[in-house]
Amino acid sequence: MKRIFKASLPVYTTKCELSKVSQVYSCGNQEGNICIWYASDEKSGLEYEFRFIETGDFYPKNGWLFLGTIHFLESKYIKHAFYRVKQQNQ
Asked: What's the pTM value of the predicted model, to 2 decimals?
C-alpha cells in the first residue's frame, strides 16, 4: 500500500537522492526548507535524484524533468527543482 511522505531539506541543498519512491508529487517551501512530497511503497519503488538550481543557472541535461519552482523570502529567492530516476552507472 502506498503512503505519502515529505522530505524536508535545507534551503542551500543543491542535490539529493530518495529511495523506494513510486511517484513524485510536488515540491515547495515549508518553514524555509525545500520540501518534496512523494509516494512510497515500502516493498518496491525506484531511487530518484533531485537537483535544485537558482534562476540563471543552466538547465540540467540527460533526462531531468522539471518538478516545480520554490519561492523563498516572499519570492525574493527562487529555486527550481528537477528530478529523474537515478541512473545505475553513477
From this structure: 0.88
Q: Extract the C-alpha cell encoding 5.
A: 511522505
CA–CA distances in Å: residue 49 to residues 61, 63, 73, 74, 81 = 13, 11, 26, 27, 11
- The Cα–Cα gap between 57 and 28 comes to 19
Residue 50 contacts by C-beta under 8 Å, 6 or more apart in sequence? 15, 16, 17, 18, 36, 67, 81, 82, 83
Residue range 17-26, pLDDT digits in tens: 998 899 999 9
Task: Give all strands (DSSP E) within 10-86, no chain letters.
Answer: 15-30, 33-40, 46-54, 65-72, 77-85
